[in-house]
Amino acid sequence: MRDSTISNSxxxxxxxxxxxxxxxxxxxxxxxSYGADAVYGGVSHFSLRNRSGKEFTYESFADAVSYTHKRGxxxxxxxxxxxxxxxxxxxKNHIAKMRDLGVNAFIVATxxxxxxxxxxxxxxxLHLSTQANVLNGLDAEVFYELGVRRxxxxxxxxxxxxxxxxxxxxxxxxxxxxxxSMCFAFSGRCLISSxxxxxxxxxxxxxxxxxxxxxxxxxxxxxxVMMRLEEEEGVGSHIFNAKDLNLSQHxxxxxDSGAIxxxxxxxRTKSAYYAALTTRTYRMAIDDxxxxxSRKKLYKAELDGLQNRGFTDGYIIHRPFERQNTQNLESxxxxxxYQVSGEVREDGEYALCKFTTKIGExxxxxxxxxxxxxxxxxxxGEIFRGxxxxxxxxKDSIDLDSADLDSSLQDFSxxxxxxxxxxxxxxxxxxxxxxDFSxxxxxxxxxxxxxxVPKNSSxxxxxxxxxxxxxxxxxxxAEPDSSxxxxxxxxxxxxKYFIRFKKILLENGKELSEIHSGNVNYxxxxxxxxxxxxxxxxxx
Length: 540
Known about the structure:
The protein contains 16 helices and 24 strands.
């Protein structure tokens, strides 16, 4: 095998690619808006997400390819199913069609499909699916010699093994999963769904039978008596239910290795909000790494808010025998800490209700990084801002006391430019004749002053939000009072934006006091928000 060395200097490392799921065109747009460098998706049963693949036709996938390329991003076509003999001719036609669409790469799983792709579409790069289960340099080299230029490593691979593969084959790109569902079977090779429902996982139609709650019985062969086995109290019976992967706390270690070329988020069948929040969070984590800082509390707080089965860091950092924490035996899924209550339309002027919205309720705005969100107060409602902390136990803090104003400004200097760019600074510019910070000490706030704001929202009261406009020149000149290394440890603060409705006005002109998810009518926002933004609220 080849031999080389990898440099772990940030200056010498090519920036890692963030790859997000595109279950349909809508989710593709959201993933790109929230910071994905590339997306992956497919058409038909040759993709290992048959249900998701049905949401793309050849026509809509062609539009998706064009949309992606116009934004300078990449799109990879999943052709990673395991075909039967009867499907080979259809597969050939499919490869040719995807070739003509001009995708950036094919994701494939078998040597035979690799051979077909090289014959039919020799100019399309080949990425090897995680289904091929590459765990070592020997297998990696075989696929590299077959023409594969990137392997999506088996999820059982360790970072040490990835580094060894990279040292032997420096030209080979290694992609790993960093977030999403984990299959209980080795590299996803499961037959339970096929056995119970006739839905074959390796043809893209898994029914997720491993998530079910099973009961166990013992039978006495002498008398035919059947008895149910009782589980230990509190353990449950979700014996096959793997926790979800979450490597947000290890991004710096992974990228420091210099071995990984792409970080992949699982979830083509998951919600648009999931695509947005996971992409946004890992975009922050990656950009923070290259900026020499880390906000691990913030990444954790954001991802904990998603629906999940419990989280594990899988095998990339720890071997299974070192840490037995990969199974959730108690429940199929947890709801997460937030409920999505609205999704903003592409024109930014209206939102569609996803849960419930009532007059006077406060919702947090989740928007793509770098978005400009103005502070507004009009007859429809108000948009205001507060500070968020990556530590969810400190959500109520408001850090704008006049005596500490200078240090509050220094907190801004820890924010990545994506979180507070010049346009955002301009939107919070202070009128020198307005506002007094003397009454903003969070320790002196009486709870009644924030009685219309949920206790855990960590927001500034609207009456102070409009006046607490910080001078953008101070933001530019503020110097942190700690060393760069110190800021790595305690730069978990984030500015958050919130919305409160005074009026719920539908697009058709009808006015309501509240609106629920069953309503298909869009309702007006106080001011246009960035396209694909979401409104969410903390689950009580």
